[in-house]
Amino acid sequence: MDFFQRQTIAKRNSRRLYVLFALALAVLVILVNMGVFSLWILTQPHYSAMAQGWRHYITSPMATWVSVITLVVFSLGTVQRFWQLRGNGLALIPLLKAQEIIPAPSQPPSHKQFINVVEEMSVASHVPVPRLFVLPEEAAINAFVTGTPNQYALVITQGALTQLNRDELQAVVAHEFSHILHQDVSINLRMVSLLAGLVAVSHLGRLMVRYSVYAPRQLQDKRLGAGANAFIVVFLGAMLWVAGYAGLLLGRLIKAAVSRQRELLADATAVQFTRNPHGLAGALMKIQQGPGSQMQSSLAEDISHMCFADAVPIFFTRLFSTHPDTHTRLQHLGPGWIARARVRQQATPCPMPSTTSLGYARQLLKEIPPSLHYTVSEPRGASLMLYALILAQSKKPILPKGLTYEEKKTLLALIKEARLFSPRWLLPLVDLSLPAIQRLPKEDYKSFIKQLDVLIKADGHISLFEFLVRQSLYWRLHPQTEEPTPHLTLQQVATSLQRLFSALIHTSASTPEAQRTLFAQHAAAMLPNGRALLEPKRCTLPLLAKALHQLRILNPIYKTMVMNTCADIVVADKVIKVEELEMLRLISLMMESPMPDLSQYAQGATSVTP
Amino acid sequence: MINTIITLAVMALLLLYTIGVYNHLVALRNRYRNAFAQIHVQLQRRHDLIPNLVETAKRYLQHEEDTLTRVIQARQQAVQAQGKAQQSPDNSALLSQLSQTENNLSQALMRFHAVAENYPELKANTTMVELMEELSSTENRISFARQAFNDGVMQYNTYREQFPQNLVASVGGFTEATLLTLENPDAKQAVKVNFN
């Protein structure tokens, strides 16, 4: 179905709803007549059969008068509200604290772009450019039009200007232009006025009830048969009241239904104008998954029907809401959009590195000489580099077996060089080597791992760095694909957590008091009562590895909490040591949880020390 | 007597209906004609922007004289072709010539954009950024105007060909309007891949 056809359908549906509105009015008149009839029948005792009485009543002048009076009250209410609202569209603007956007030489680029987009849509739709306003305080994504056929205003939120890209902005503007083109503002004005007519009928009823109940007693007593009269008036009033509200309820439902049809029409027209459903779908998805479209202004209710998307929260039921839900709108846009939206939603937002950490990373990469970058970019050089990084730690390196003469020479040179490396280069060099290692032929790779293990175990002690290198290789090259289920709770992993925090705290602080404070301040809250800091010999690397292995199947929600606590421990003393970084990397690697962005935790004073 | 009245009434209704159809046809025709005028307005806007663009870029692109000259030449030809096409809007040969020169201009501009990519200072220049936004906005407008013209033509043609409007249209001399199509022979050709 193309957008022309969808427009035809939406227009036809809106017309049908007008017919429904006329029916609602008829229901109102019939209800009022039934009320009067039930009184009238009391005064006509000789009608035994109700049906016969009804037939007589409906042909009597009484019924005509009742109907005419109801319709007159309805029309008066409608006309009164219509006059009240006419030409009132722009009066809302100052109340909303909207700022006008006027073409000026020194305006923000986003405003200039907005003006351009509006002018483009004006070309596409043959609609004159409206006055433009922005709501600077609204962060939600929304826009609306208001005004009279002579003077329209298009108002957009600041959130829409900053968060939508050009295509999406264009789609939103095109949607609003459709509201102008199809005169939805005046349709809504008519709808509101018709509702006011129904309200007027029920108001009249309420007045009648109030008057007879609260009117001074003497006034009633002076009249003949005051009691009966008062009863009649109260009964009639209650009848009108109820009938008016029943009509109003129907009217509200119909108005909301009309409004939803106009929104779909506007969506279809927006696609006609832009010929780009991606823009509209993008804007809808951003609303669905981003800041939403609900405005903060107290006047949001008054403008909700002209907005791009729901401006007020939905209460109770969608039947009364002015917009179809995003799902429906995407569905009408064409096949495939819902699936795309779902994919977008499932893609968990990855923590974006902040500019400071990016800056740090860039600086670090610049520090490392280009010759090293080159060495680690090919498989042979990368494996030699990893050998060298391990061997540089020991005084008397024993070279691995099976190397050619050339390779031995390169390795010895690399070891010599590696002894002078800044400690903060080590992790990045390992990271830079891994992609090339992955390209090693299978046989070479096996022998490489074997040799590396020999080197690591050569001195009878596995350092944190060695362990991290081994684990990085293992995890990068053998990714765990199966999803571990079921997830564990914090209670179930308490001992592992205790071990993890203790190991990290031993790396982080050196004095026993500092260690205890760190444990009490950060770790204790995540553990059951009574768990204390473990001694270093009870949280060695092999034990830690076991703990981390269990923590891998911790519920992901808690994993983030654990990672954040670790980050808190690391930055608590405002200094991030290289060992702490290595430890954090190991934790993140083996728990399969992203590294926290440390620059967000530490403010200013943090530095990475060698 | 009653028969006469009924006949008169029916005739009056028919006449009113015919007048309505005729007027609607006129309105639709004017709408698409106006849309056509819009295309010219936007082309004009693009032509006016280009000298500023070249002037700003000149300072940064001293070694790319060739690219700039090509843009200026393409603009010159497009301006001339537009002038001729506006004087006689029904001449299809002139129209296709205009579309050809506009395509050349687009290609020259594309080349210019590609070259400008290599000059970060030029891309950072605020005037340049504004001009680029204006230019891309204008190109959008041209395509929107063309699209609005085609939509207008489609509405007019559909209305004109439907019964009973086609009777009024043939008597009133409402001829079929033609859609604007992409008249660039290169764009329709399949892309040739050359591995040498």
Summarize the largest interface: chains and residue counts.
Answer: A-B, 16 and 17 residues
Total of helices of chain A = 27
Shape call of chain B: elongated
User: What string gives the helices and strands of chain B in order?
Assistant: HHHHHHH
Radius of gyration of chain B: 24 Å
Structural class of chain A: mainly alpha
Cα end-to-end separation of chain A = 65 Å
Largest sheet of chain B: none
Structural class of chain B: mainly alpha
Q: What are the low-pLDDT stretches of chain A, counting only 5+ consecutive residues below 50?
A: 602-610
Number of strands of chain A: 6
Q: Give the strand content of chain B.
A: under 5%
Radius of gyration of chain A: 38 Å
Biggest sheet overview of chain A = 4 strands, mixed
Low-pLDDT regions of chain B: 184-192
Mean pLDDT of chain B: 81
Mean pLDDT of chain A: 80
Which bin fits the share of residues in helices of chain A? 55-70%
Strand content of chain A: under 5%
